[in-house]
Amino acid sequence: MAKVFTGKVVIPGDQMEKYFEAMAEAEAAREPFRKSFESLNQDFAHYLSTKYGKKTVDKHTGIVDTFIHFICRQTDVEALEEITKGMVNSHFRKWYKRKVWDSATDNDLRVALRKFFQFLATEKSIVNQKALDALK
Fold it and tell me: Which of 41, 51, 127, 129 has the most CB atoms less than 10 A away?
């Protein structure tokens, strides 16, 4: 089962190089997943632009872009279907409040992610029912 990484990591000073190498390797290994996720967000932006104005499209895709960053850096998820209810709900919301300085409310986060997962289900046939149920 996929996990969310929380807490602090203590790295001894003499092992910092190993840590940076391990982080670079992990990031390189996740790059294909990140690229595909970002491509889906671009498709989502195009899909939204047929229905909404630029401001709404930018707001939703910005939140989804931040969600992509959260999933790729704070979890060990390797496929969209592995994203859990807690990741799209409480974990992301708490992380967002700590890391992002903007006026987005919890409702804004929920709506943007719900629209994104609905887009994935209807347009791309990528269904994550747990995420959809959590975002109702």
Answer: 41
